């Protein structure tokens, strides 16, 4: 009963904290991005990119503290966090909630280079957030239906070109490239609609991961296969549990994988490699699905 009465207070505190730091850091990073546009000198732009990255890390620390505002949060992190901020990593991760992004920020604030997400085009128009992400060189992806591509064939491969341009920029600054391979957040409705062969996951999409590896190749020091599991909450959104102070724990499993030669190839034009890479990612998803079942069983 007492915990229920505290929900309005938790909501106010969490929302104020989240909005304050997001607006502040978003505005600062956006200003740095504008300076990058006005000063098209490579050395200056690299320095400004490093400054934007350091400012972004402050937001990571602020979002990490967001989990602690209710005073009940416990982290259960399995796996290797012996990582370095001066290296390059790729994360493949399951996706259930917007809270996943905050969990990854919590992990990266100390142990990894700051992450870059592949974002939907619509997010660019969110005040402070969109411009800040643009200034950090995060790629905005615009999805086209098969019907639209059939009518306008020149749209084919637009996302590939966006991925290529963004990954080229990542070469100059240690970065963690994050791929939510399912392409969207898991819901029971999507699970049923897609006829997913997995219990807790949607089928993974291999293209973005494969193209990132193709472009950056061996510059990635490792692939981090991350699995996030939240407590059962009766089907309520995880973000509601976080904001209302009811998210008591998060379990994160991290498996570090080498970037082997067989994972780098021409996904768009080599059918044999495409089939091989899809098989590899599907196998990873089978293992991830089994791991989630084990973590939920306790």
Tell me the major beta sheet. 6 strands, mixed
CATH class: Alpha Beta
How much beta, percentage-wise?
Answer: 5-15%
Taking strands numbered 1, 2, ... along the chain, how are they ordered across the largest sheet?
Answer: 1-8-7-2-6-3
Number of DSSP strand runs: 8
The ordered H/E elements are: HHHEEHEEHEHHEHHEHEH
Structural class: alpha/beta
Radius of gyration: 20 Å
* Residue windows where pLDDT falls under 50 for at least 5 positions: none
Q: What's the end-to-end separation, in Å?
A: 27 Å
| Corresponding CATH architecture | 3-Layer(aba) Sandwich
Q: Give the count of helical stretches.
A: 11
Task: Provide a descriptive summary of the structure in words.
The structure is a single chain. This protein has 298 residues and is α/β, with parallel strands linked by helices. The protein has a single domain, classed as Glycerol-3-phosphate (1)-acyltransferase, CATH 3.40.1130. It contains eleven helices and eight strands. It has helices at residues 2-5, 7-38, 42-66, 99-111, 129-135, 146-151, 158-170, 188-193, 207-216, 238-243, 271-297; strands spanning 74-79, 89-93, 115-117, 119-120, 140-141, 176-180, 222-229, 249-257. The strands form two sheets. Strands 1-8-7-2-6-3 form a six-stranded mixed beta sheet, with helices on both faces. A two-stranded parallel sheet has the order 4-5. Helix 5 links the parallel strand 4 (119-120) and strand 5 (140-141). The longest helix is centred in the first third of the chain and has 32 residues, at 7-38. It is globular.
